[in-house]
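hey so i finally got around to running the thing on that chain from the lab meeting. sorry it took forever, my laptop kept dying and i had to restart like 3 times. anyway pasting the input first so we r on the same page abt which one it is
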Amino acid sequence: MSKNLSFNILSFNWPKKQPIFYFTIQETLNSHPIHKYKWSSKILNAFPELNNTELEHIYTTFTTKTKGGIAIEIEMYKKDLLIYKQFLKHQLRNYFKEKGFIVTKNFIKDIQVWLPAKKTTHPLFQQYYKFSLKLQFAQVSEHPELVVSFDGLAKVLNIPISDIEDTTLVKKTVYKNTVFNYQKLKDPNKQDFYNSLEFNKVFPLLTRALASAYNIPESAPNRNNKYCKYVNNIASFAKTYLLTEEFKKIIPVYGNNFLKVPIKLLNRINAKKGELEYANKNKGLFPKKELGKFKPYRRPENPNIKFFFILHKSHQEKIRTLYSYLTKGTGVGTYYQGLEKYINIKVKLSNEHFITYKNASNPIPEICAQLEKLDFNHDNVRYAAFYISPFNKFTPNKEDRLVYVKVKELLLNEGIVTQALDYNKMQNDLSKPKNYQYTLHNISLAIHAKLGGVPWKLAVTEKKELVIGVGAFMFQEEKRRYIASAFSFQNNGLFRGFDYFSENNNNALAGSICKKIREFSNQVKTEKVVIHFYKDMSEKEIKPIKEGMQKLGLNVPLYILNINKTEAQDIIAFDNDWQELMPKSGTFIRIGNNKFLLFNNARYNNDNKYPAAEGYPFPIKISISSPDKDAFEDANITLELLTQVYQFSRLYWKSLRQQNVPITIKYPEMVAQIAPRFQGNIPDHAKDKLWFL
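ok and heres what got predicted. didnt touch it at all, straight out
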């Protein structure tokens, strides 16, 4: 394990003496509101009238004396530290605004600075590099810390609002050096700002809808090593703007390098824990290399499998090529020799079930009419349908995008799993069989899992424990979140079943979780129950689960792991001893009290020939908690829980590429993304199947 890792953090000194801030009850010129949750005993003593008031805020001019202001010395702990943090954020904001940069907030309310790109990539938009600055205190060191993150690129259209005909396509916009949501200007509290806008100086961020309206092509995804890009960007930003004498007068950064990860915070899960088992007890770490050679761990139960196509009548010629690849292979070497050989099942084309439609913009009525006339032998045969979609997930029209969901629901109600393929992408890829065979691998993998097979399982299974995953998906147009709970047995990591609910349905979620706990505890004596949750779990959400466990007489610890991606606006770490910078798989770093970074990737050694196709996933951030007092008495419990997360990240069956997020979060998120769009409920027979892959 490399011990030469660095955070994306700059440490700085505590103030040499406690700062004095000036406070008033009433708002004054250039003052800043201080919310009541930041009021310390010093403030309440200085303003005794606050003890019997409904005021939400008092005000401060920070270190600037003000008439009638009461001077209070700020301590570097508890609530005073929150006020000091607000002061530093104010200083940061002013520093970058004075340089003329766009300064806004990211989604967790930290400061985000936009630097214009020096090179123009397209005449219709300007690119900006986004950097976030997050202040924290003594989380990974003994000092205040400034987390420097690269948040990717923003594209701002060069066409002002005054020249845009359809402003409903506009979301976020830039005016001078501020960013705001154009669609929220109808808020009565924002009318003064709205009336002050000069529309010829307001420029919208480029959205897919605007890109489509102005014929700006979608950018191809960048598959390069994002660690190198990330570290190069933050290093350049820090050198130019943060490691300067001017900046150090505001934030007294010491040294000129990012903070090294202390050895005491660093550990690693044994790579053997992530080993996978295929057919005939063959084992390995790389499904991309091994699945075709070793064959899946377990075939679907039904030995009679048939597949058919649902397609537009103009797609038939391309389908012949696709069918040839699926049955005979790509003809490029021996890498993909067809569906049957690759995933070791017997399949037959069901010509009598083919469905073709004429109306590409509204195929549902034709598909429904033909589906009603077809007979399926469900008693003896398991069916899979390849739906060739004329639309992709980026199609601007929402109704067009939802056709795929309607087709999936129609077939699911018939007990048929669906594999959707984007026709436009497919017809381009079919002419490049050497490249397309990688897509065929993923299609074959997903079909095998949807049909009830097990492509691989965990090879190392020391204990039998219940792990419950709860993930979510937010529908932006509805501003409503749906959650889904998925269930797995730890002894093999295999999927057991799921349900989904709206965000506020805590009782239904708790009832579903307790039902699975009861089913599992009736079969196996378990030492603990583990829940992987997509956010911090509230006491209101935990209480009915603990009550349910008590009614079952299950007096074992309950652990809740909050699991988040760290793609941006957060702490990461990089390995200075490896040229591609990504820490080894299984590395984990303590970044607070029971908070960790965990690296899930395909790097197991120092080989400089790392397969780039495996990707360079960033770490996930995990917080571990428990409502039980003695839950952390066992010194090994943290390692066990992180190992579970690591193992469950190895069981994703939609793609052969290594994932950083465990399926306990990933699968529920996928259900929550699709199921709420169904016209009816998910049929019971589909709640223990992976049709959503």
